[in-house]
Amino acid sequence: MLQLRESPLHPRRGLALNLARTPADIEAAQHLRYKIFAEEMGARLPFAEERMDRDIFDAYCEHLLVRDNASDRVVGTYRLLSPQQAKNIGSYYSESEFDLVRLHALRERMVEVGRSCVHEDYRDGATIACLWSGIAEYMQRHGHEYLIGCASISMADGGHCAASIYRKLEKLHLSPSEYRVFPRCPLPLDALNNTLDAPVPPLIKGYMRLGAYVCGEPAWDPEFNTADLFILLPLSRLSARHARHFMKV
Prior knowledge:
Layout: E1 15-19, H1 23-40, E2 62-68, E3 73-81, H2 83-89, E4 98-99, E5 110-118, H3 126-142, E6 146-154, H4 160-173, E7 182-183, H5 202-210, E8 213-214, E9 219-221, E10 226-234, H6 240-247
Parallel strand pairs: 5-6
Antiparallel strand pairs: 1-2, 2-3, 3-5, 4-7, 6-10, 8-10, 9-10
């Protein structure tokens, strides 16, 4: 179990990091996810009447939480699906959107992260850095070597920004062919304007700075109305500076 600790990046705000221990902890994360995904992003979620975002993967995942010490409110969350738990449920969440056949040899060493969200009042870098340090500690403690997940781009404009962002990222961050994945519902890149100077979302930019690959063309997620990129981060690609910061080595 991760121990509660203060975020070192925001001395004026006390943030505590831990893994969910009770059903109430998980529900707090699910309520935050609903607020971000449904209320802010307009996702059509199946449990809207409960004001929660939940699915069958939640019961198999560890839920990383950042709380504001002053209010005990959950202000940031990620969920983590270990290789063993992916085997127990039968797949990774990402496999609902992508064919991962080329990653078969990595499955015993892959942790999937997802459902990342941070409350709008806490999007200053400290909260996401706190979450990432928790992910790194989890990976190191359990000996996992690869981080995978879907990173979302809004399709509020019909997908033109998403197509443009992908074209920008593939030039510098496309994976080697042996790590390539294939979207089950591809974003129709050729039918979209992919020449816009669209900003890369901060979370995706952060993954790229850590050394992550984009493993192929984006998938369209109709439930969340997003274009999703499959991200793969081999921990061996972390720079020495990032390894010292996140892995404490």
